[in-house]
């Protein structure tokens, strides 16, 4: 492919072709030979499980990452997208889930941010507003006033503004990362209308979504990624069956060894936690389940399905809007982390570095943070007892290096996660809530972490694991909840499920 | 869910270092984290962290001794100690607040308000004990108001304490009717006159507050939680610590320090006045910052802050001993603040790069 | 504090009860009843013939914020003097140290078309334009103390003599040194805010008067007109100069702090002269049991005189003891040296700090 001569007529060749893209990160090969071809005026859908390489591929396209090897051809010519600016100048725009708009500026100012209508450095507000109105008109949104402050717009309309910004920069290719995640049903239909406007004008769209029904409605062609490689491409988006897509996405080559489940059914043990019709606004709706002592409950679902919010709500970090959480026979007050912790709950949050650890502090102080009263009398610390207990805790979790004086930031992801686990095990924690426990943890260290989690459960601690990695949930948990759009669409023993069925539920929204 | 691993998995595991930690260590070694590791050593860290300030202080002593015959005398050191004592006590409270991730702009105004409230005719009529109690209660109470506004009212500390700064000084001026209130209670004035074993009582109070502050910061759960709160309030909250209550306590502590400082100032000036404690907030923040405490919170030492106070007081002392103008003195102070913070941020950025 | 952390329930109860008690206690400490004695001094006895009632007039008044004794006395003197004339209404705007705000306040007075304005500007140069504007609008301006940059901005100026004040202090100290037979005295000076023109004038006068006697200032420090700064710099000054023969402190407001530092250092080998003439200092001079032996006045009674001048000008009158039919363009008050001998005469004019 790379030996092809530059065609004389670029219109006949694909707008973008990527071949053999490889990107290594320390310890992880994120992309391992991706091929992607996008034609002008088409909606090209990208599918793949968590960790398949979609995000890295987008970052390569947007110029945020430079690939180690491989070739990118744009309009027939090889290009290097070394910076985000370079990508934008080529005509490749990316619309992220967290929209990068400035709330305090007007719609027009946002659309022209960085390339203002300002001959000689003097802003021409009226001309700029008119131009912005024209771009919005091309998207069929004359109803958005160019002078309106962006902060007052809904997410759906902000998305339109982002697209208008891309258009105003003469973008030929717009990458959309799960654009429907923040939208309501009728807003999605409007989004599709806008996308059709764009493709009608020859703009290509790379559309990333987990929702197969959306892909069928808007997509032209489909590419599936797995393990950082393209496993299938040029599939017709409308007619490829769900079972074919799921089979392409599953069966990943990296398999972790999961510790064996205890032979006895764990349901006979006393119930520790009862979640009863729990709701959090529209994010979590009417979820009920129980956790027994020594049981691992796994929650599978996509980003935005409400799984993390469910965990945080039952922990008390968010105020539930309906339902009840009963822990150890007593109903927990709403939105009070302190009382959850006092009764023996512990959370290892998703964003380990910002939500769990004090990176500059020593491992010792990180571990003892939640159980300071154990080491103090009238507030006075017994530092010897603290050091003794923490050292013992670190040793039992095999944290390396075992020196408790090191700052937490010098530890690897896996060891940092162990530090968080050690924190809760030091107290009398009886229910551990783990949100994406293996995020940022190396392949090799994962197996060890799984073993550790099972050991903790075997000691009688109840565990709830949230993960977007379906095999992880199935391999680790005894009992599985599948979340979609804030509700638990399925519950059942893990050994009655397989990856294909769970993916099917997550993607199609049909309870099995 | 167990499938036979294919060959490619094996091939990959060879290219990736098997021990995750070893990889992190290797990366750290490349970016020169050896020095950082030395800096993190528990025994050496406190000395190294304050080394810069100790050097500055030593240099100042050399300059002082060589330019003025009156510098290197017991009396002068006693004078420096006493001069540092009032702002030093305020700085102890400020150190707690800043390590906890906040800022307290109201300290100077709280010193003024406490001094005025404690020296009204009515307060003075009850004697020294009531005056002291009054000053400390007023400071603590105003600190609690700060804390409640920040923790429960969700105001930014800068705004809440700025409002307190303006209104507390206003209240002080109104209460004193813009007059200077002379302290006639001799026991209060005696605080500035008494000495024990040649050490002025004011310096003893200062030392006691510093010692108590050091113990609370380094040996109690309260201190631990203060560091944690400043390091990451979200992580601290999710670790099950009531950060709202802790925030209120932090500002109450700062207010209490202002109350104690107000009593010391009452004795030292023999007056209560709404003009007391002017710009204390800036002096205290400057001392804390050059003492090596991060303005963003989470890291810092009380010893560094106190050394910072001594540096500023010694500069003032040397300038007056040499009959030099205030303007030059202020330039010098500014240069020292910038230099200290530059050194600090460079050290931190090296940390982050590891 | 840390002990309290562990016992949440109990602490809440305790602080609840404690807070109620503390509130009542603190409320009892706010009373300042005894100190609200009537402002002393400030009533210059106007010449009898000028006192005849004229037409009803409104005098606008603007001064900096009354944040220390002297300015406080200026404002209260102006108010009480105006109160003596039944036909005079005083429109006094809130004092401010913000030049911008003072300008707009005076502009409001101009818009109100008052009959005269008495103006003590926070900064004379900054208020000059505003003074001119009033004058052009036909409203006579009496410039109090801090001088405008342009003489046309005021109908008349009345104020103290900063240079003369320094000279008076210098002359007094020089005489004392000579009578004590000290040939090379250590003379210290504690300034107010160093960069103000008035401070520089005072120091110049002091240095000139000492110079005539062959003496000079050996140690000079500057405070900030506040008690605390007075105490702070004096403590360091006394350290720098183990022996002092004479000390002049520019300002009696900061003088309270200066005296505190002197007492705390246990020093009494020198004589001290104050500045401005507060009642505190005059009482100390009268009792003659401390280092302070004299103070040179900078009387806030000038505000009372300024009201009288504004009234005369608004009525088109002159000063009856002068030959001229109108008020002079400038009046400089002399700075008197108050000692134990004449203190009783000046005590009624003294201001509370």
Provide tags for this entry:
A: 512 residues; alpha/beta; disordered N terminus; B: 354 residues; mainly alpha; 17 helices; 2% strand; disordered C terminus
The count of DSSP E runs of length 2 or more, i.e. the number of strands of chain A, is 22
Rg of chain B, nearest Å:
24 Å
The share of residues in helices of chain A is 25-40%
Main interface pair?
B-C, 61 and 55 residues
Oligomer: heterotrimer
The name of the CATH topology of the largest domain in chain A is Rossmann fold
Kindly report the average pLDDT value of chain A: 87
Q: Write down the secondary-structure element order of chain B.
A: HHHHHHHHHEHEEHHHHEHHH
CATH A-level architecture of the largest domain in chain A: 3-Layer(aba) Sandwich
The largest sheet of chain B has its strands arranged as 1-4
CATH class categorisation of the largest domain in chain A: Alpha Beta
Low-confidence stretches of chain B: 1-17, 350-354
The tally of strands of chain B reads: 4
Instruction: Indicate the percent of residues in helices of chain B.
Output: over 70%
What is the distance, rounded to the nearest whole angstrom, between the alpha carbons of the first and last residues of chain A? 44 Å
Q: What portion of residues of chain A belong to β-strands?
A: 15-25%
How many structurally independent domains of chain A?
3
For the sheet with most strands of chain B, the description reads: 2 strands, antiparallel
What does this structure look like?
The complex is a heterotrimer of chains A (512), B (354) and C (353). Chain A is of the alpha/beta class. Chain A contains 17 helices and 22 strands. Chain A folds into three domains: 1-91 and 207-254, P-loop containing nucleotide triphosphate hydrolases (Rossmann fold); 269-344 and 429-512, P-loop containing nucleotide triphosphate hydrolases (Rossmann fold, 3-Layer(aba) Sandwich), CATH 3.40.50; 358-427, no CATH class. In chain A, strands 6-7-8-3-9-10 form a six-stranded mixed sheet, sandwiched between helices. Chain A has a six-stranded mixed sheet with strand order 16-19-20-13-21-22, sandwiched between helices. In chain A, a hairpin with a 2-residue loop joins strand 17 and strand 18. Chain A is globular, with a radius of gyration of 25 Å. Chain A starts with 15 loop residues before the first strand and ends with a helix. Chain B starts with 6 loop residues before the first helix and ends with a helix. In chain C, helix 6 packs parallel to helix 7. The longest helix of chain C has 21 residues, at 8-28. Chain C has two domains: 48-159 and 301-321, Rossmann fold (3-Layer(aba) Sandwich); 162-297, Response regulator (Rossmann fold, 3-Layer(aba) Sandwich). Chain C is built from twelve helices and twelve strands. Chain C has 353 residues and is an alpha/beta fold. In chain C, the strands form two sheets. Chain C has a six-stranded parallel sheet, with helices on both faces. Chain C has a six-stranded mixed sheet with strand order 7-6-8-9-10-12, with helices on both faces. Chains in contact: A-B, A-C, B-C. The interface between B and C is large, with 61 and 55 residues.
């Amino acid at each position: 492919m790379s030996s092809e001569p530059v065609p004389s007529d670029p219109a006949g060749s694909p707008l973008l072709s990527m071949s053999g893209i490889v990107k290594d990160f320390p310890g992880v090969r994120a992309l391992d030979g991706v091929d992607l071809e996008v034609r002008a005026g088409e909606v090209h859908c990208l599918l793949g499980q968590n960790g398949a390489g979609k995000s890295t591929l987008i970052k390569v396209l947007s110029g945020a990452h430079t690939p180690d090897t491989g070739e990118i051809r744009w309009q027939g010519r090889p290009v290097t997208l070394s910076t985000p600016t370079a990508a934008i100048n080529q005509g490749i725009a990316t619309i992220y889930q967290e929209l990068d708009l400035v709330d305090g500026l007007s719609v027009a100012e946002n659309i022209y941010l960085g390339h203002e209508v300002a001959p000689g450095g003097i802003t021409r507000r009226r001309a700029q507003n008119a131009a912005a109105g024209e771009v919005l008109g091309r998207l069929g949104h004359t109803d958005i006033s160019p002078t309106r402050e962006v902060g007052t717009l809904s997410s759906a309309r902000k998305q339109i503004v982002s697209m208008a910004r891309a258009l105003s920069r003469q973008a030929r290719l717009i990458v959309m990362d799960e654009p429907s995640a923040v939208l309501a049903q009728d807003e999605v239909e409007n989004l599709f209308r806008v996308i059709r406007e764009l493709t009608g004008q020859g703009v290509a769209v790379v559309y990333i979504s987990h929702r197969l029904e959306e892909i069928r409605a808007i997509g032209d062609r489909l590419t599936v990624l797995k393990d950082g490689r393209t496993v299938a491409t040029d599939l017709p988006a409308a007619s490829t069956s769900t079972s074919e897509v799921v089979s392409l996405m599953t069966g990943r080559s990296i398999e972790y060894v999961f510790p064996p489940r205890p032979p006895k059914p764990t349901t006979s043990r006393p119930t520790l936690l009862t979640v009863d019709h729990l709701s959090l606004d529209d994010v979590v709706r009417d979820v009920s389940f129980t956790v027994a002592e020594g049981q691992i409950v796994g929650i599978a679902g996509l980003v935005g399905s409400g799984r993390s919010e469910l965990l945080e709500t039952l922990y008390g970090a968010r105020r539930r809007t309906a339902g009840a959480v009963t822990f150890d026979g007593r109903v927990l007050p709403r939105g009070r982390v302190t009382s959850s912790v006092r009764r023996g709950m512990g959370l290892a949050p998703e964003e380990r570095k910002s939500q769990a650890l004090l990176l500059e502090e020593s491992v010792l102080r990180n571990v003892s943070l939640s159980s300071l009263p154990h080491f103090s009398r009238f507030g006075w610390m017994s530092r010897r007892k603290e050091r003794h207990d923490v050292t013992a805790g670190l040793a039992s979790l095999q944290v390396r290096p075992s020196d408790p004086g090191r700052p937490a930031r010098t530890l690897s992801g896996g060891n940092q996660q162990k530090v968080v686990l050690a924190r809760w095990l030091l107290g009398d924690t009886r229910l551990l809530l783990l949100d994406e426990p293996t995020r940022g943890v190396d392949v090799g260290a994962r197996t060890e972490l799984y073993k550790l989690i099972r050991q903790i459960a075997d000691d009688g601690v109840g565990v709830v694991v949230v993960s977007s990695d379906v095999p992880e949930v199935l391999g680790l948990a005894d009992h599985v909840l599948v979340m979609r759009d804030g509700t638990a669409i399925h519950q059942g023993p893990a050994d009655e499920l397989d990856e294909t069925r769970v993916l099917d539920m997550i993607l199609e929204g049909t309870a099995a | 869910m167990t499938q036979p691993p294919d060959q490619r998995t094996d091939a990959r595991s060879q290219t990736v270092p098997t021990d995750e930690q070893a990889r992190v260590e290797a990366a750290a070694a490349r970016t020169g984290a050896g020095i950082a590791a030395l800096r993190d050593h528990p025994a050496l860290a406190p000395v190294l962290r304050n080394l810069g300030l100790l050097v500055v202080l030593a240099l100042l002593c050399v300059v002082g001794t060589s330019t003025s015959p009156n510098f290197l005398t017991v009396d002068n050191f006693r004078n420096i100690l006493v001069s540092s004592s009032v702002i030093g006590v305020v700085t102890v409270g400020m150190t707690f607040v800043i390590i906890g991730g906040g800022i307290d702009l109201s300290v100077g105004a709280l010193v003024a308000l406490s001094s005025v409230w404690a020296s009204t005719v009515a307060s003075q009529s009850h004697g020294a004990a009531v005056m002291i109690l009054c000053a400390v209660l007023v400071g603590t109470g105003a600190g609690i108001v700060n804390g409640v506004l920040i923790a429960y009212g969700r105001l930014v500390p800068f705004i809440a304490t700025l409002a307190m700064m303006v209104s507390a000084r206003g209240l002080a001026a109104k209460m004193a009717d813009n007059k200077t209130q002379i302290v006639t209670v001799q026991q209060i004035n005696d605080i500035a006159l008494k000495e024990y074993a040649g050490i002025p009582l004011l310096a003893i109070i200062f030392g006691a507050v510093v010692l108590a502050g050091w113990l609370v910061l380094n040996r109690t759960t309260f201190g631990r939680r203060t560091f944690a709160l400043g390091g990451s309030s979200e992580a601290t909250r999710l670790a099950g610590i009531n950060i709202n209550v802790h925030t209120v306590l932090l500002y109450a502590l700062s207010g209490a320090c202002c109350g104690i400082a107000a009593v010391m100032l009452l004795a030292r000036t023999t007056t209560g006045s709404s003009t007391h404690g002017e710009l204390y907030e800036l002096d205290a923040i400057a001392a804390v910052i050059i003492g090596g405490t991060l303005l963003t919170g989470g890291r810092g030492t009380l010893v560094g802050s106190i050394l910072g106070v001594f540096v500023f007081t010694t500069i003032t002392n040397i300038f007056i001993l040499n009959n030099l103008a205030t303007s030059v003195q202020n330039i010098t102070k500014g240069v020292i603040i910038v230099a200290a913070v530059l050194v600090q941020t460079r050290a931190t950025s090296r940390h982050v790069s590891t | 504090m840390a002990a309290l952390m562990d016992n949440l329930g109990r602490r809440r109860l305790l602080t609840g009860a404690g807070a109620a008690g503390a509130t009542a206690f603190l409320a009892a400490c706010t009373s300042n009843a005894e100190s609200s004695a009537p402002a002393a001094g400030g009533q210059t006895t106007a010449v009898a013939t000028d006192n005849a009632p004229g037409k009803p007039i409104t005098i606008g008044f603007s001064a900096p914020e009354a944040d220390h004794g002297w300015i406080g006395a200026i404002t209260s003197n102006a108010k009480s003097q105006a109160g003596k004339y039944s036909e005079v209404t005083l429109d006094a705007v809130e004092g401010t140290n913000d030049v911008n705000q003072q300008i707009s306040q005076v502009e409001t007075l101009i818009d109100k078309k008052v009959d005269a304005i008495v103006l003590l500007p926070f900064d004379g140069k900054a208020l000059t334009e505003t003074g001119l504007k009033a004058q052009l609008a036909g409203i006579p301006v009496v410039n109090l103390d801090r001088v405008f940059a342009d003489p046309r901005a005021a109908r008349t100026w009345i104020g103290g003599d900063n240079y003369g004040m320094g000279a008076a202090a210098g002359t007094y100290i020089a005489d004392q040194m000579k009578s004590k037979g000290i040939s090379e005295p250590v003379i210290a000076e504690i300034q107010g805010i160093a960069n103000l023109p008035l401070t520089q004038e005072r120091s110049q006068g002091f240095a000139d008067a000492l110079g005539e006697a062959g003496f000079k200032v050996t140690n000079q420090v500057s405070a900030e007109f506040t008690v605390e700064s007075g105490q702070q710099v004096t403590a360091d000054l006394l350290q720098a100069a183990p022996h002092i023969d004479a000390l002049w402190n520019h300002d009696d407001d900061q003088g309270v702090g200066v005296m505190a530092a002197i007492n705390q250092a246990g020093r009494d080998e020198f004589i001290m002269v104050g500045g401005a003439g507060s009642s505190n200092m005059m009482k100390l001079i009268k009792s003659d049991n401390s280092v302070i032996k004299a103070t040179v006045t900078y009387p806030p009674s000038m505000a009372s005189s300024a009201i009288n001048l504004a009234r005369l000008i608004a009525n088109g009158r002159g000063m009856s003891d002068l030959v001229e039919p109108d008020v002079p363009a400038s009046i400089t008050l002399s700075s008197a040296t108050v000692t134990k001998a004449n203190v009783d005469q000046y005590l009624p004019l003294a201001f509370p700090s």
